[in-house]
């Protein structure tokens, strides 16, 4: 568009311009110097033109399709000159000096003489255009250098920073500066959501904890589409959801740009920036964001790989430490186990030795207690032994024990207390306790288990040895009591090999537990406790004050058989009283019945003695004469208690009364048996008996005194009279049977 003559009245009013030579010289001088900046060049040219022709010239620049004045002037403000800023390719067809996007416009008629040479104006325009282009190029170089610096820093951090959170923070910080943004955040994918992992420049706490599904907000849109998301007006844009509009208002955000983060083609997150001012993200901004996103992806992947590697190394280190710990634990466990096994194999593996070995190895107090809570041994001497005893007893009463495993407990004083029950064939026989110590719980637990196993083995070893000896011992006893002659002879030889002397007078004892079943039911004993009670009684019998007289002792079920070295009846009764007291003290409340045979000199006759002991035991149980009875004192009762059809007791009964009288009559041609018979036939009347025998009463009395002296009977006592009468009649019957 050109100026018409209609605009003349306006221009005619303009003041007269200054001399052209002066203007041209000054313009040439300005263009000959190197400007400090484009703004300074424009100001210099514009100032010159304003000084010499303020209402004629103006400088305009093409911005898109619009020419925009660069310097204020009276011409630019006038309606006629303002009309030059039109949306055409050129501001005016004539009187225009243009160079690229810069033009100097002369507000004059087309037919008016030029104020300044057109060639000079074009030179000035080119100079301004080149100055602006150089400055823009320099700015682009500086920006490119800044961008390269940022990318170099990010790349450097990829190689140096190993912590993922630090990498994400560095990426957000560098992106914020390069994009001239106000907020920057890195969101990483977690399943079907993206979670804010690092954020800078935010004002609200919620921004640092953003969590979006697909399609929510700009990041959710990128997550859903996989494409770059750009929003010029966050609050008015309709392409994004309104889930976070209130947060955007609180943060005062206006525009946003988000790019996807991809690793090997897989979506892993979003890099997003926000501005709190009205602005448009250019294609250059998008390109920079994409470049940063690529570097960020590498950095994230590198940091993730490093983190995985670090975690793996930490796990390997932990596994190595754990393995070393286990190896050391196994080494110590093996050493302790070897020590305990050697102790058992050497025959010194009693509970005391085991407890001492474990205590020395672990440096703690070790105790062994029986199943009923009695402390058997403890090493070393502990100042709080009473506390240990009471705690063990209480635990035994409550039966609160873990089967086949060690259990960590605490004593009332606060000390650590490991317990492990000791089992043999699923029967609990005791408990091992480990108190205090500085070893780790694993070591204490393993040691408690090994100590319990060693105690089980020691118990089995002791029981096997005891069973073997007892079996051999029992075999000797029962061969002597029940075996044929050849077995009894062999048993005597084995007894001699075992150091058992059976010379001299001996008696056989046969005993039985009277109330053990009732005690077990009343006290809720198990089978193991009942067996221990029996063994306790046997040990008490052997270790009693009368134990020296016990030559052999055997337990079979509830029956006890013993061979004791004792002769007279009084000594026999004293021995039985001592054994009974010892049994009662070993197991309070237990009662036993005893039967003792008469005295025998030859061990080959022990079967007869054993039968007598059985008869005496039957008398003690049936006649309730007390806890024991002597066969010698049973009298005629033993004939009723003895085995049916057994003639040995009958003959023994006859011989005890009549044998001394028969021997006297044979040696002295006496008549003691006839006198005794006549005394009984006369109803124990001495006068009638004397008349029957045709002797003087004094003679009869003398004979009766001899009979009492030889037989040991008191004929003035009814029981002795009945015993003597019965023995005499049985002798007559047996004599008649022999004659028949």
From TrEMBL:
Residues in GAF domain copies: 163-310
Family: Belongs to the CdaR family.
SUPFAM superfamilies found in the cross-reference section: GAF domain-like
InterPro entries with a match to the protein in the record: CdaR-like_regulators, CdaR_GGDEF, GAF, GAF-like_dom_sf, PucR_C-HTH_dom, PucR_C-HTH_sf
Protein name: GAF domain-containing protein
Organism for this UniProt entry: Cryobacterium frigoriphilum
Pfam family, one: GAF
Lineage: superkingdom: Bacteria
